[in-house]
Amino acid sequence: MQLHWHRRDLRTADNRGLAAAADAGPVVPLFVFDDAVLEHAGAPRVRYMLDALDALRTRYRALDSDLVVRHGDPRAVVPQVARDVGADRVCWNKDYSGLARERDAAVRRALDGVDVARESVHDHLHHEPGSITTNKGEPYSVYTYFWKKWRDREKAEPYAEPSGDRLADPGVVDDTGTLPSIEALGFEEPTATVPEAGTEPARERLARFCDDGVFRYDSDRDYPTRDAVSRLSTDLKWGTLGVREVYAATDAAMDAADQDEQESVEEFQSQLAWREFYTHVLFFNPEVVSQNFKEYEHDIEWRDDDDELEAWRAGETGYPIVDAGMRQLRAEAYMHNRVRMIVASFLTKDLLCDWRHGYAHFRNLLADHDTQNDNGGWQWAASTGTDAQPYFRIFNPMTQGERYDPDAEYIKTYVPELKGVDPSVIHSWHECSALQRRNAAPDYPEPIVDHAERREEALAMFERARGDD
Question: For residue 336, which of 54, 202, 224, 325 is within the disulfide window of CB 3.0 to 4.6 Å?
Answer without folding.
Answer: 224
